[in-house]
Amino acid sequence: MKILVLCGGLSPEHDVSMKSGSLIAAALAQRGHSAALCDIFRPVASQKYAAFGKGGGEIFDIPKEPTSLSSMRAEYSDGRQIGHGVLELALSADLCFLALHGGFGEDGHVQAVLESYGIKFTGSKMAACHASMDKNISKLLCRRAGVRVPEGILVFRGEKMPDVSFPAVVKPCGCGSSVGVSFVYGKEQLESALCAAFEYDDGVIVEDMIDGREFSVSVLGDTALPSVEIIPRGESYDFVSKYQAGMTDEICPGRLTKEEEARVGALALAAHRALGMDDFSRSDFILGNDGKFYYLETNALPGMTKTSLLPLAAKTAGIEYGELCEKICALALERNKK
Ligand SMILES: Nc1ncnc2c1ncn2[C@@H]1O[C@H](COP(=O)(O)OP(=O)(O)O)[C@@H](O)[C@H]1O
Ligand SMILES: [Mg+2]
């Protein structure tokens, strides 16, 4: 099968996505597929692996110094987010494997373009991606499906300072990777936290800080995979700990009773369905000290590096990395047949 792995793009998670994409292309090539690997932003002609049969030639590492998005933009400054030739390449593929993370690739934009060209791709469609990217919308949908979310309010730029209880967490509605997230312990810290969050979005959530342990549960097809417990080594689970190996401990399955494991699995499935996700997703929860799970968010395109949580959960369930990649392709093709 001709599979185009799309990754990179103008996202703060560009480098992680390049790594995910190169691993996926290698795994698919190894399993006999004709894979191509393409940074969605750059022109196809400028890329070494963007041809069928060429993908899987190299595994990209995450550089210590992140790739500069402004210099990428300056290199190809025609305002396009999809490079010359990328759509043509996608049209000639049997399937596109989306290894994009963050922004344009995960918020539904890329999905909308691919859908309108009739191009088949893995993972959720435009509307579900869009809903999951917005923490306000996703929490509203999940709450309607019976999934408990932290109590909170939505604040818009310029509005009066809200009356909230502390400790609280302040976060922009539409970001990720802990960007713009602050933990606030008193009223005097609220204004600067709101300012920091408004840097990234016009809508900001201020919600109760839940004291407890954090779990991430992936859904593959119609099953919840074993939970992963995330134990930060630093004070919180921020951008650095997420992507630098060794900054968090991840235990799979998480330290839960059988009943709790079943409960959080059912919640992850409920969130997946409430948001209208396809093929796979990964939802994050906190198990509060009150014994209740609180929903934080769902990732439409979770990381696919070997240390990422979905591959880890799959492995615990007996599904190796290459098999996971193929299973995702199979789910997408099956869905497209209907
Ligand atoms: N209500 C909350 N209570 C306690 N910790 C929280 C809460 N919301 C977020 N966090 C912590 O902050 C991290 C980032 O928040 P999250 O909502 O997942 O946003 P992001 O999209 O930036 O990952 C979470 O992984 C969790 O550790
Ligand atoms: Mg998160």
Throw out a few tags for this protein.
single chain; 338 residues; alpha+beta; Rossmann fold; D-amino Acid Aminotransferase, Chain A, domain 1; Dna Ligase, domain 1; 12 helices; 13 strands; 21% strand; globular; binds adenosine-5'-diphosphate; binds magnesium ion
Structure, described:
The protein is an alpha+beta fold and 338 residues long. It is built from twelve helices and 13 strands. The protein folds into three domains: 2-121, 3-Layer(aba) Sandwich (Rossmann fold), CATH 3.40.50; 132-147 and 211-337, ATP-grasp fold, B domain (D-amino Acid Aminotransferase, Chain A, domain 1, 2-Layer Sandwich), CATH 3.30.470.20; 152-208, Dna Ligase, domain 1. The chain has helices at 14-30, 69-75, 86-91, 103-106, 109-116, 126-133, 135-144, 187-198, 239-243, 258-275, 309-316, 321-337; strands at 2-7, 34-39, 95-98, 152-156, 168-172, 182-184, 203-208, 212-220, 223-224, 228-232, 248-251, 280-288, 293-299. β1, α1 (14-30) and β2 (34-39) form a beta-alpha-beta unit. α1 packs across α12 (321-337) and α5 (109-116) packs antiparallel against α6 (126-133). The two termini are 19 Å apart. 48% of the residues are buried.
List the helices and strands and how they pair.
Blueprint (H helix, E strand, L loop, with lengths): L1 E6 L6 H17 L3 E6 L29 H7 L10 H6 L3 E4 L4 H4 L2 H8 L9 H8 L1 H10 L7 E5 L11 E5 L9 E3 L2 H12 L4 E6 L3 E9 L2 E2 L3 E5 L6 H5 L4 E4 L6 H18 L4 E9 L4 E7 L9 H8 L4 H17 L1
Parallel strand pairs: 1-2, 1-3
Antiparallel strand pairs: 4-7, 5-6, 5-7, 8-9, 8-10, 8-12, 10-11, 12-13
Helix pairs in contact: 1-12, 5-6, 7-10
Magnesium ion binds next to strand 13.
